[in-house]
Amino acid sequence: MYQIPDLKQIETLRHIAVLTSGGDSPGMNAAIRAIVRTANHFNIEVTGIQRGYSGLLDNAFVGLNSENVCNLIQRGGTTLMSARCKEFHLRETRELAVNNLRQRGIEALIVIGGDGSLTGARLMEKEFGFPVIGLPGTIDNDIYGTEVCIGFDTALHTAVNAVDRIRDCANSSEHFHIVECMGRNSGALAVHTGIATSAELILIPEAPWQMDEVCHQLYQLRKSDRATSGIIVVAEGGSTGVSYEIQQQLALLGIDSLVTILGHIQRGGTPSPNDRLLASALGNASIHYLMAGYSNVMVGVERGRTITSDLADVISHRQSLNDSTLKLVAELKPWF
Ligand code: ADP
Question: Mind listing the pLDDT tens digit for each residue in 273-330?
């Protein structure tokens, strides 16, 4: 289990709130549960806000307590629901949200989400001095200030499981299969999936690739009979559908291929044990950090310990893949 530092309690909190925002990720429920249970342990009341920042504006507030977070840890998605709220990009909207929190006597807000959600949290603190703590929840695993985000491990298991199944078909029918992973601009999920399934080719934004070049290499392979089937794992790289472009290019060269876009199955599902443990540690730690007077930070993990990073730093950086990952891909490439 992650080590949480011993912190001196300097704040006496009475009432906090929690919301989940942006893309949902498996393990968010485990984090909510840990926040509520830990807060209640220290006699702090918790209000849940439904549908992310939209709920702050619509007054979608629900009381949470140790009992109503029973049977939650194993459930995917988020019981508070998540949403995207365009209006939150406006300062006056954020002011309204902070006023709504203050009117209810809420003294701090914990936001679980990706970099967009953490940006919203940071602005609430910066502009109106409202105490916030962020927790990294995204299957994209692209948040700076933590080695791993809530949901990534589960999504990786799901994607690996799917590719293993597709491999059976690829071997049997001698086809190239193009499998597209989520991740927005990050190739983390794709590259880890590709390595774990010994994909013949992994295409990620972090290692720029040219469509013509890739398709030409696949054509050469097919012609030489060195490869009659294979798995190409590609990161969506900003928008869904790049795999269809590869398929079309290959078709122009006379090569049939099959496309599977893994899509939202990577987001849903029962959180893995590692995600439950991570989310429990981060949820628990967030209360300890709040009681120790921390604000405007994200709680992440590094080398088996929870750490905090300034939200301004978190949102102005991107977690990049380490060099060893890219080297590994380059050195393990079986075809080229
Ligand atoms: P994620 O948190 O998964 O990265 P988004 O980028 O869609 O997902 O952000 C989720 C929500 O966070 C947005 O719908 C919006 O309400 C809020 N948000 C995102 N970016 C900003 C921003 N620059 N300023 C204020 N709020 C933001």
Answer: 999 999 999 999 999 999 999 999 999 999 999 999 999 999 999 999 999 999 999 8
Q: Is the CB of 134 under 6 A from ligand 1?
A: no
Of 306, 271, 272, 267, the residue nearest 38 (C-alpha): 306
Q: Residue 170 corresponds to which tokens in the numbers above?
A: 């690829």
pTM of the predicted model over 0.70: yes
Burial class (CB in 10 A: 0-12, 13-18, 19+), 274: middle
Nearest-CA neighbor of 180 among 253, 232, 105, 128? 232
**Alpha carbon distance 140, 123 (integer Å):** 22
| Cα end-to-end distance, the chain, whole Å | 41
- Residue 85 CB less than 6 A away from ligand 1: yes
Which residues, listed in sequence order, are joined to residue 177 by a DSSP beta bridge? 231, 258
Q: Which among 179, 177, 192 has a CA at the least distance from the CA of 140?
A: 192
Q: Which atom of ligand 1 is nearest to the CA of 140?
A: 3
CB 163 within 8 Å of CB 231: yes
- How far is 52 from 97, CA to CA, in rounded Å? 11
Quote the ligand 1 centre to 208 CA distance (angstroms). 27
Domains of the chain: 15-151+271-316 (3.40.50.450), 152-267 (3.40.50.460)
